Each structure stands twice: as structure tokens, then as C-alpha cells.
Amino acid sequence: MSSSAELSKIIKSAIIKAQKDGELPQVDLPEIIIEKPKIDKFGSLSSNIPMILGKTMNCNPMDIAVIILKKIEKNQIIDKWDIAKPGFINVHLSTFQRGKILVDIIKLKDKYGTNSLGQKTKILIEFVSVNPTGPVHVGHARGAVLGSVIANILKFSDFNVSKEYYVNDAGNQIDLFIESIVENIKKILDIDYKIPDDGYKGKYIEEIAQDLIKKISKNNLKDVASAYEKIKKLALEITLDSIKNDLEMLGIKYDNWFSENSLISEGTLKVCLDILDKKDLLYEKDGAQWFKSSQFQTDDDVVLYKSNDEGHTYFSTDIAYHYNKFFIRKYERIINIFGADHHSHVFRIKSALEAFEIDQNKMDTLLTQIVRFKSNNKSERFSKRSGNIYTIRDLLDVVGVDAIRFNFLHRTPESQQEFDIDLAIKESSENPVYYIQYAYARLSSIINSVKFDYSKANLNLLKSTFETNLIETLDLFPEVVVRSAITLQTHLITKYSLDLAKELQIFYENCRVLSEDTELSKARVNLVISSKIVLKNVLNLLGINTPERM
RNA sequence: GCGCCUGUAGCUCAGUUGGAUAGAGUGCAGCCCUGCGAAGGCUGAAGUCGUGAGUUCGAAUCUCGCCAGGCGCGCCA
Predict the structure, then answer these.
(1) pLDDT per residue as tens digits for the range A455-465
(2) Gap from A332 CA to B59 C1', in Å?
(3) What is the pTM of this model?
(4) Cα A342 to chain centroid, rounded
(5) How confident is the model over A217-229, as a mean pLDDT?
(6) Is residue A223's beta carbon less than 7 angstroms from any atom in nucleic acid strand B?
(7) Final residue belonging to a domain, choices A58, A93, A128
(8) Cα first-last separation, chain A
(9) Do A107 and A53 share a structural domain?
(10) For residue A449, what is the domain's CATH number?
(11) Which pLDDT tens digit goes with each residue over A231-249?
(12) Is the CB of A370 under 7 A from strand B?
């Protein structure tokens, strides 16, 4: 258990004791948040709980702080307690506790920082899920990186996580895509063709057409209509492979690729419609079938089956998809990561969940704000249909994968991001990720030159502020993981990685690890080894490489 | 027009139930290697926290108005 978790418990029991003894009023206690003060002189850790209680208890925070301090039981963790205006409790960790932190880290190794928050909860995280109608562009990379790291954080927090890509292999966008390819094939084969006005354009469409001509013999292609199913199957395979490949280059791997079509062929959609029908939530109007979502969370009802027999809407299969997640595969929680342009869709899905009587809290939706593409001072949206694509692959050609990942992870998803390619290239070399990796390589370098036995070290020798600050930063890691698992925020981890790297550099500048003082050297090697473990765990969570050398 | 999101240092962004002197990276002006990696450390300049009001002992944080930008408001996905 981290010091802040211990401290939180200690303070809580002190408050409860004071309440029992009648020295503090009986009120419900909020979560006791422990944080590291920004300024060193305020100690290792602090809590503002007296100020929070001051409000609910209607007392002076400073008086409350004094009472809490009196009730705190003796322990080995804290060396010194302070009270500061206007009502902070500040603590200084004991040398014993700092030593224990290092021992714990070395013992736990790659398990250090894990927690049991999830308790094996079965959770599905779905992200990217772009139509298999072309390459993945930079606009999707954000959700991709975010999703994979949130999955890592949740795994680290004892959730049973599956990462899924929902393949939209049904519906009219796919038909349009295939039609665009078919017409391009005809064009290449010099058959009468007509490329649809609203069809997919761009060089990659022509390339897929060329590729298919190679894969399917020319004889079969003469009658394009009869080869349609084969073309569709192969075209989907080609685009999906390319998507898979691009995402892997970004360091992202999925557990499942879920087919939209299977919801229709396996009858899930029909089951859903029957349930909604039985609840009297469906009706016919203008030749279409509607769902009464306005009874739940939307302003207007939504169409499930289009008029003129044009088939199901995307929304109807998405209802079935969510039904499948909860009732067939029995996920206990799901997380969806969508682009902000899907905002209104979220309320439709929630309406459907409500109709199925699923607890709303079991679904979290993260909306990443649209990444806009900017170059030569022109700002525009990515669009596949217009052929205006800047792909992940294009980006990886000019910016390293670690820099890209850090760039997306280091900001809150709701921040709007204008992706200026010129700026991205310029900043690539000065990306903070290299600072962190540099610190890591330095640690490795020191450890490699250690030639003595450091197992029995006197950790009490680590008492300069450079050393204590570093140890106390290592100690914060488990809490950072918990916090980011609860809030699903990745930037807490990147922020921590920077803080840790900074502490490491300062330690390095001021404390020579390998010196004539063999006892001190032994202790410091233990500190270096602990630091390397923690930094490695942090970077692994972020999916960022840990180079031994740079 | 309605709904959601955003506005903090020149630039890119943090800022945890409202609390200690509003922070980081980068850029700018300087200083520091014949010592485990200078892709580094240190010092400094740089902010009306979009704006106006309100609530509070206390507001970047909460409430309302206004300004600016983004995204939605399809029988597209």
C-alpha cells in the first residue's frame, strides 16, 4: 500500500475516533484525498480535509486540524505532522517508510503500481471502429492510442479487459465503397464504367482495384456482376488488413474484430426488435420503422428500418451490438471511445439501453474531440470520401511512434486538437517523451556499470532532499494508476512520467551513485533500480518503448 | 436557432470533492562538463486564467449573461 493510502486510512480513523469521543460533530466523511504539496517545505504529503470538514461541520478548519492531530495513533510511517493555515495537515514521511517503499518496489517489480480496483470485472473497450472503407487517418489515431492505454491501465487495475474493433461490414457505406471499387475495376479493364458521384475517391481506391484485378482472374471479372461477392469479400480483407497493419505500427492490438453483419446473420437484431416491439416501443410511419427513443433520452424518435425496403440503419445494428455485449457475451461494463461527431449517437444508444433495462452506469463513453488537419495555414477536416486523407502511415513516416503516442496521451480527450503537420514534425525532436526515455537510458547505463553486491544496503543513508523527493515520487505511482483507472484519463500517467523523469535528472545531477563511499553507493544503486522498475512500468502502461541506450 | 465541448505564459498544454506563492514542456536572456550519458542541470524574464457580474472567509475551478472557436441537430456510418 502506498503511503498516501496509508495516510488516508490513518487520518480517517483519527477523525472517527474524535467523533466517537464527541470532539467532532457526526457527519458523513468524504473521501480523504492526499496530495503532494507543490512546495517542498510543506512536507511529503498533505491533506486539506480539515477545510472540507470545516464546511459540513461548521467549525474552524484550524481547530479541526488540531483535534485530528491529537487523535492520530502512533505509527512508523510518519515522522512529523504539521498544521498550516488555512487548514492543511502536512506530513513528513519517516526514513523507515521511505526504505520500505524501495523494498516493496524491488519485491513487486512489474507488479508495482497494480491495484485491485477492477476485481476481475469483465469489461469491453471498443475503439476506432472506423468503416473498413479505407486507410486509418490521423483523426482516428487519437482514439486508437487512447483506447489501448486505457485498456492497459484497466488491466493493471485487475479488470478483465477485452479490446474490440467493431467492423461495419453491413450497410450502404460499404455498398458504396464496393461499388466505387467495382467501377474502378471496370475503368481499368476498359469496360463501360460510371463512378458514383458520392462514391469513394482517392488513389487508394484505384490501388485496391489494381490489387483485385491481380487476385481475381480476368475471365471471372468480365462478368463483374457475378464476381461481386468475391470482390466484396476480398476488398474488405484488403482494407481490414491494412487497418490492422497500420494500428499495429502504432502499437495497438485488438482481442476481437466483431462483425456487424453477424448481428443480422445470427439473428441478434431480430431478437432486439422483438423485445422492443413487445414493449410497444416500435411503430411504422412514412413506410419506415421507428424506435420511440424520445421516451428516453433523445428529442426525436429514430429510424430502425428505412422506407422503400432499403434495409436497416446503422443505429439498429448498433442496438443489437450493445445487446450482444451485455446479454450474449455478458460484459459487466463497457467503454466506447467515439469521435465527438458521434455525440448525438450516444444518447440514442443510451435510450436503447434504458429500453433493455440496463444500468446506465455500466456504459462509459469517451468522446475525443475531432482532430483537425492543418498545413500551410489551411485548416480542414479529414474526410475519406473526398479523398482528403492524411494516414497514420504518412504520419509515422515523419514522426516517431513514441512521440505520436505521447502527444495524444498527454492531453485530455476533450481538448480540441488541431493537428498541424508542420508543427508536429518540428516538435517531434523536442517531444517530452525523449526526455523520459533519456532518463531511462541513463538509469540503465548506471546499473550496467555496477560490479558489486548491493543486496544488503542501508537505505537509511538516502536522506538528502534529492533522494527523498525521488523516493516519494516513486511512492505516488500506485495512486496515480488508481486515479486514472477511475477517471479513464491517460494524461495523469504521462504527467507522472514527466514528474518522475524530472526527479531522476535532479537526483542524477546532485548525487553521484557510484563513489568511494561503498555503503552509500549500495543504497543509491537500490534507489536507481527501484526507479528503473517504476519508470519501466509507467512507460509500459503508455505503450512507449524503454530503450536501454539512445 | 437549439444541444454538447473548448478558451490559462509567445507556442503546445496541465491545474484532482472551491484552498498554500496559478504550473510543465517548448521558445527567449544568461550560467554550469578533464566526474555514473549535456537529448542534461540551474537562474531569470514572460499570465487582466476569453469577458462582465454573482455566490463564498476564499473562485482558473460553482451560477448566470456576453464574446470567440469546434462538433452535432439525416430514413450517413
Answers:
(1) 999 999 999 99
(2) 39
(3) 0.94
(4) 18
(5) 73
(6) no
(7) A93
(8) 34
(9) no
(10) 1.10.730.10
(11) 899 999 999 999 999 999 9
(12) yes
